[in-house]
């Protein structure tokens, strides 16, 4: 998942730095490919004997260690947190990171990986509904059209017309992942206005790691399972290698590539390219895990993603949404597109 902002402005005091659209596209495509591979890498580990909770623990814990060491050595100032900021970081880590990953793997263990990630991708609809009924912001009619399309697509994916043939617990876990994903964006909207995104990701991972380790302590993972071979397409890698790969490639690298890409691309382009993630996950699951969707589910997937995209592209400025970084990544000069405005309500001083 990649934070985007639809409301940006230049800061006259910053030094302009040319953006590279091609670099941004390449980085965002790589981020989507890596994010999309997480379920495909994690499911063979679960089929080999690990629980979804254990896979989530391994992914988040390894990523937290890598990020904490990397940021601590290269930019320790980003790890400083004021006392009043911990509550937001706790919510971000527990819901936006731990909740999303835990429920996603719970869903992927019971339903096809492609279905699990499609369920998670209904989060823009949930964010839009939150904005309408909690923040009381009027939504334009194209957004309502997008919401309707997304719900129709979800019904087709779940094959409701056939009497709900999907595993109920898997379906509920996927919906829970979508709720946590919506929280990720809503909390991120507030967080990155005052935090560097790399700081938020790092502390979010650390907090999430503590939480999931309480649920599934790493020392409870059987060593025999970790050393055993998993069925991953034509290959038979050890389970521990899949866990390290999903942590480093599908988490650390994916987040860093996504954050960097947003310095070169507008939110509208990022929203379109982000839809590669469920397509990648579904394609990889079909090629490597033999999880094929029926034609109704494929149709539903495109309807759902089209609706979600319409919701994102027609979001009003007052919706807010996740904002962008307030300072450059280590080693980069600031540029005019790195200072983002807050939502209209915040600019007017409303609560």
UniProtKB/TrEMBL annotation:
Localization recorded for this chain is: Cell membrane
Q: Which SUPFAM superfamilies match?
A: Multidrug resistance efflux transporter EmrE
UniProt keyword annotations, A-Z: Cell membrane, Membrane, Transmembrane, Transmembrane helix
From the record, give the transmembrane residue ranges.
58-77, 89-107, 113-134, 141-158, 164-186, 198-219, 239-258, 270-289, 295-315
Q: What kind of membrane protein is this, topologically?
A: Multi-pass membrane protein
Stored InterPro entries: Diverse_Substrate_Transporter, EamA_dom, EmrE-like
Q: What are the boundaries of the region Disordered?
A: 321-351
Limits of the EamA domain: 23-158, 169-311
Gene Ontology CC: one annotated term:
plasma membrane
What residue spans carry the Basic and acidic residues bias annotation?
Answer: 335-351
Could you say which protein family the record assigns here? Belongs to the EamA transporter family.
Write the protein's name.
Answer: Predicted permease, DMT superfamily
